[in-house]
Amino acid sequence: MYVKDVMVQNQVGLHARPATFFIQKANEFKSSIWIEKEERRVNAKSLLGILSLGIVGGTAIRIIADGADEQVAVDSLVELVESGFSDENR
């Protein structure tokens, strides 16, 4: 299991469009991946799960992966969140 904390950089947070980009990136990996906000944990490959967390800009989240490519999965997703979901990083 590999875990990293990250601050959501973009102002609108993980609403539908950035969440979709996040899920597309998460689906590139074989590992099971979750997002945790406070005490809630959801599947990072589930749009409804991510949207249910209500993640806004400036929110700290934890990205957790478990599997063969867990470290590269978490590092890639942290990089995506830190980029603010800018076009050149998709």
Secondary-structure topology with pairs:
Blueprint: E1 2-7, H1 16-26, E2 32-37, E3 40-43, H2 47-52, E4 60-66, H3 70-82
Antiparallel strand pairs: 1-4, 2-3, 2-4
Labels describing this entry:
single chain, about 90 residues, alpha+beta, Histidine-containing Protein, Chain: A, four-stranded antiparallel sheet, 3 helices, 4 strands
For the record, the count of structural domains works out to: 1
Helix content: 25-40%
Number of helices: 3
Poorly predicted spans: none
The span between the termini is 25 Å
> According to CATH, what is the topology?
Histidine-containing Protein, Chain: A
Over all CA atoms, what is the radius of gyration? Answer: 11 Å
Strand percentage lies at: 25-35%
Q: What is the spatial order of strands in the main beta sheet? A: 1-4-2-3
GO molecular function: transferase activity
GO cellular component, one term: cytoplasm
Subcellular location: Cytoplasm
Transmembrane segments: 47-65
Structure description:
The protein is of the alpha+beta class. It has one domain (2-89): 2-Layer Sandwich (Histidine-containing Protein, Chain: A), CATH 3.30.1340.10. The chain is built from three helices and four strands, in the order βαββαβα. The protein has helices spanning 16-26, 47-52, 70-82; strands spanning 2-7, 32-37, 40-43, 60-66. Strands 1-4-2-3 form a four-stranded antiparallel β-sheet, covered by helices on one side. The longest helix has 13 residues, at 70-82. It is globular, with a radius of gyration of 11 Å. The chain starts with a strand and ends in an 8-residue tail after the last helix. The model has no long low-confidence stretch (mean pLDDT 93). Its main location: cytoplasm. Keywords: Cytoplasm, Membrane, Phosphotransferase system, Sugar transport, Transferase, Transmembrane, Transmembrane helix, Transport.
